[in-house]
Amino acid sequence: MKAQILHMEIRPAVQSDLQAISGLAMSAFGVSEGPEIVQLIADLLLDATAQPVLSLVASVDEGIVGHVLFSKVRLEPPGRRVSAALLAPLAVHPDYQSRRIGGRLVAAGLQQLADAGVDLVFVLGHPGYYPRFGFSPAGIKGFEAPYPIPPQNADAWMVLALHPDVSGNACGRVRCADALAKPEYWRE
Ligand SMILES: CC(C)(COP(=O)(O)OP(=O)(O)OC[C@H]1O[C@@H](n2cnc3c(N)ncnc32)[C@H](O)[C@@H]1OP(=O)(O)O)[C@@H](O)C(=O)NCCC(=O)NCCS
Predict the structure, then answer these.
(1) Which one of 9, 88, 89, 127 is CB 3.0 to 4.6 Å from 155, fit for a cystine?
(2) Atom of ligand 1 nearest to the CA of 99
């Protein structure tokens, strides 16, 4: 692991950050995935069904080097009132990876969501990365992804309960924001 960056600030993204966030996403995801992720970020920020979004950037002297976005999701059938969010996407500039920037962005986002009363956070991501924040497979807990996840990637669909009493009482199909409602985003 590389040394942590001492002078890093995590703050809410503002509109004028969008270009830097897009450049960062291109660097992190590369030419094949980058353009789609850049479009997804722009779409989610404007998508009424994604609100409220939580968009955080990690900034150092050189500029923005990390970004995470959380968007609103709903559980179907709507029963008990459960507030839920989805983490996607997360990106750290390749020159700054493995310095805990991704970890600090995720932790800061989860804390802010918990403070805002969000109960559950979902992610479709690397099963080797997200369990360190407390995420665990969501399918076996009864949470269906917006689109079927291929069985070999079932562990990539994960959930974290921000309030301990919630996950045992909630289950159902997760309905994501319109901007994320494309089967190609759910193949992992
Ligand atoms: C995944 C990503 C956000 C992690 O950011 P980061 O700042 O490097 O992460 P941290 O420094 O907090 O954590 C580093 C750890 O994550 C692990 N890690 C990084 N990418 C990983 C992956 N794809 N799968 C599993 N583990 C991964 C590293 O091995 C390292 O592990 P260690 O702590 O045991 O040494 C960053 O690598 C990235 O932007 N990747 C490209 C885009 C991407 O895949 N985004 C996530 C999907 S939306």
Answers:
(1) 127
(2) 11
109 touches ligand 1 (CB under 6 Å)? no
160 touches ligand 1 (CB under 6 Å): no
Q: How far apart are the first and last CA of the chain?
A: 26
For domain 9-186, give the CATH number.
3.40.630.30
Question: Which tens digits make up the pLDDT trace of 11-45?
Answer: 999 999 999 999 999 999 999 999 999 999 999 99
- The domain spans of the chain are 9-186
44: tokens are: 């989610």
Q: Whose CA is nearest to atom 10 of ligand 1?
A: 100
Question: Can you give the pTM of this predicted structure?
Answer: 0.94
